[in-house]
Amino acid sequence: MLRPRIPTMPTPTGIVTPVVTPTHIEQQHPAPACTCHHPTAPAPAPVPVRPAIQMTPGTLLALVGGGTAAVLVIGAVLVSMLLAVAVTAASVAVCAVVLRSLLNNQRKPF
Length: 110
Prior knowledge:
mainly alpha
């Protein structure tokens, strides 16, 4: 009665077609090498190097302020989530103590 029933694998009905169908593979032949003489191209112009970013005291102060604000906001969110979990756990513990005392009071004869 309480034993689980293991389902059997269903048998296919009708014509079964393969999932992968074989295809014809064509061999590609490499192109013949060029035997003509092309003029040589001139050397490419040198790519200009990007200048390094110049940090002024204002941009440095803005970066430090932005990083500090991000750390404070993320810290506040994490602390509030931890506080929510702690409050929920405390309320569940109080409910468990109240239920336990109510159930113990019912078992004692008067």
